[in-house]
Amino acid sequence: MKQKETLWNIMDNHDLDKEEAMDDHVMSSLDTPLRPDAFDLSDDEKIAIIEQHFHGIMHALGLDLTDDSLKGTPARVAKMYVKEIFHGLHPDNKPYARRFENKYKYNKMLVERNITVYSSCEHHFVPIIGKAHVAYIPNEHVIGLSKLNRIVHYFARRPQVQERLTMQIANELKQALKTDNVAVLIEADHLCVMSRGVNDVSSSTITAEYSGLFEQDQYRNEFLGHIRTK
Ligand SMILES: Nc1nc2c(ncn2[C@@H]2O[C@H](COP(=O)(O)OP(=O)(O)OP(=O)(O)O)[C@@H](O)[C@H]2O)c(=O)[nH]1
Ligand SMILES: [Zn+2]
């Protein structure tokens, strides 16, 4: 049972029947790679372990951890990881997007653009900073505007690659809105490209996912037109 609960916990799909989901669940490439025991520890237990390890990293770098300014850093970093920048690893922190009936029968495109993306590159653990633009064409349901931002923020607050972040957001929107008519475009700067390695401060990365009606040029172009308008 413990194992089953854990499998359920790592799933991002809140719409599936729980038992059915547990029976059917196979890790897909869309899932953030997590161990089955990922949620066996409490946040406080995780913070204590990370603090200890980060202390070790700073020590190995030769830093004096008795220094006033440095001594609190391991605890600060640990708390920041668990409670802030990797907050979206835990399904309990997933935003709940209540569906409302599409009473007005609005059947055109809704675009939420320039949603701030603060994420972390899973290869180097440095920031990815950018903007997400999301759109949908409703069927029977709509959700609150802020939930679109919250869904982006939730998936961004994980170690990520931009492609998977894009797909996870698109997938969640499809489930939350009960429609395939979803578009997600992310433009972002990767600090791992800008501040180290290839040291290119002028390049940026664009990823996009289009499904349902957005696979058609007409809708895709309308979406791209909206996000380009100032
Ligand atoms: N596809 C993809 N690659 C990413 C993303 N973020 C970082 N990377 C790349 O992941 C790769 C990791 O490759 P490695 O060769 O193992 O890392 P590295 O030696 O630090 O590579 P350099 O950055 O080229 O110095 C790098 O090319 C990064 O630019 C992302 O969101 N998507
Ligand atoms: Zn990186």
From TrEMBL:
GO terms for molecular function: GTP binding; GTP cyclohydrolase I activity; zinc ion binding. It catalyses: GTP + H2O = 7,8-dihydroneopterin 3'-triphosphate + formate + H(+). Gene3D superfamilies: 1.10.286.10, 3.30.1130.10. SUPFAM superfamilies: Tetrahydrobiopterin biosynthesis enzymes-like. One of its GO terms (biological process) is tetrahydrobiopterin biosynthetic process. This is GTP cyclohydrolase 1. HAMAP family: FolE. Pfam families: GTP_cyclohydroI. NCBIfam families: folE, PRK09347.1-1, PRK09347.1-2, PRK09347.1-3. Pathway: Cofactor biosynthesis; 7,8-dihydroneopterin triphosphate biosynthesis; 7,8-dihydroneopterin triphosphate from GTP: step 1/1. Residues 50-227 form the GTP cyclohydrolase I domain. Homopolymer. Keywords: GTP-binding, Hydrolase, Metal-binding, Nucleotide-binding, One-carbon metabolism, Zinc. Its EC number is 3.5.4.16. It comes from the Bacteria. Belongs to the GTP cyclohydrolase I family. Zn(2+) binds at residues 121, 124, 192. The gene is folE.
